[in-house]
Amino acid sequence: KQEVTQIPAALSVPEGENLVLNCSFTDSAIYNLQWFRQDPGKGLTSLLLIQSSQREQTSGRLNASLDKSSGRSTLYIAASQPGDSATYLCAVINAGNNRKLIWGLGTSLGVNP
Amino acid sequence: DAGVTQSPTHLIKTRGQQVTLRCSPISGHKSVSWYQQVLGQGPQFIFQYYEKEERGRGNFPDRFSARQFPNYSSELNVNALLLGDSALYLCASGMVGGTPDTQYFGPGTRLTVL
Questions:
Q1: Which of A4, B44, B48, B59 has the most C-beta neighbours closer than 10 Å?
Q2: pLDDT tens digits, residue range A27-66?
Q3: Per-residue pLDDT tens digits for B23-77
Q4: Rounded distance, CA A19 to CA B69, Å?
Q5: Best mutation target, A100, A102, A103, A105, to test chain B (most B CBs within 10 A)
Q6: Dihedral of CA A13/A14/A20/A23: which sign?
Q7: Over the stretch B64-75, which tens digit does the pLDDT of each residue have?
Q8: CB contact under 8 A, B96 and A99
């Protein structure tokens, strides 16, 4: 059974710092991995999607990497800003016909001005 | 182009009542998935529909049901509401088989059961 774990559960950093959020999964037979952002009480915003054949994806100050063999992904945020404060969730889709997302519990990020 | 829309945004019900939540996918998307997110937890998969057929079902009781209409919109029904059903209900649309298979989420419906 696929399990997704995110470390740390919470993180507080000063503005301008570079940071790394970690996601690990137990079954390497994934279709893809997706990183999301969730603001308090709000829905989910897709940040980056990495296909199982890819190693990384970049969007602006965000870079996500994927190491399928070790069951790990990282989300790198460069030059953090107070507006980056949110909960970051990673989710995997297992290979197969069912495209359901399996989620971690998220990392709550606070960026202090 | 409009994103995924959900209605209503907020809902308050009492135990034992029934509720219907609605979702409209992004134009051109044929897949709709439903997730339940309890406060402080990650979302839990409830259902996925593709081309009006159920593609997957999560570990939820039979009180939860859903359907997808010919225009690909979807409804989630929950009968005999319990306090534990209070959560944010999220709908996501995607193009099964498309590349990349990104899931796009709506803003969610916040259900409170008293």
A1: B48
A2: 988 888 999 999 987 888 989 999 889 999 999 999 999 9
A3: 999 998 988 999 999 988 889 999 988 888 888 888 999 999 999 999 999 999 9
A4: 44
A5: A100
A6: positive
A7: 999 999 999 999
A8: yes
Contacts of A36 in chain B (CB under 8 A): 105
Predicted pLDDT of residue B1: 59
How long is chain A? 113
Q: Least CB-CB distance to A49: which of B44, B58, B100?
A: B100
Instruction: Label residues A37-75 b or e (16+ Cβ within 10 Å = b).
Output: bbeeeebbeebbbbeeeeeebeeeebbbbbebeebbbbb
Interface of A with B in 63-82 (CB under 8 A): none
CA–CA dist B110, A94 (Å, integer): 28
| pLDDT for position A93 | 85
Burial class, A10, CB count within 10 angstroms (exposed 0-12 / middle 13-18 / buried 19+): exposed
